[in-house]
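Write out the 3D structure for:
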Amino acid sequence: MSKAKRRQILLTTVGFLVVIVCMLMIGDTASANSLPKISVGLEPTDNPEDLSVALQVVLLLTVLTLAPSILVMMTSFIRIVVVLSFLRQAIGTNQMPPNQLIIALSLILTFFVMSPVANKAYDSGLKPYLAGEIKQEEAFEKGMEPIRAFMLKQVSEKDLALFVKLSGMEQPQNKDDIPSRLLIPGFVLSELRTAFQIAFIVFIPFLIIDMVVASVLMSMGMLMLPPIMVALPFKILLFVLVDGWYLIVNALVESFK
């Protein structure tokens, strides 16, 4: 192939690429010009319903922002994630399982434990509200009843009495008189106490293995060898032999019944 022919092919290819690039730029410009314009502004209104709808939207966005905190404070997530974190420390694997996996497993178990409560809240509160049978205030109260029943079943009277005392309110006559602003922190405190109690029981067998391995190494004069490195395979072996994940998950779920 002659040089002139090669040059002609090269120029033709470059010209074709330039045409394609120009067409893409024109298409992108046309697509950009066709995008809708979004604007947010404040306008005066004489209709109170417009203000009510705006406040409902703001409240909904606020609830969505606080949804993770609500999930942590009013469900079984606290106990499960604390116990699983202590389990990882007891075995001695600082990064295994990773934090993402522990949180994911905690969320899955939380959904499993809280599903009956969520179904009751939906049937008694949200479903009638969407059907137009009840108002928002009544839907909120009926939807909170199963969640409050769950927290009251798990909370300790000592923790409730603490926050009643700190709030300065009168002694409630029954559980229905306890406001949610006192029930939620009492529930969180009770969940932390229960999680630490379970973690103590989980730590005992692994602590025994650490003590035995440390004593054996000291008796053999191997003081420079870290006992944690030697004990780790035995702790993993023990955890596998007793089917540790089955026992831990079963104990956590049964603790809420």
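Residues 180-219 form the longest helix (40 residues).
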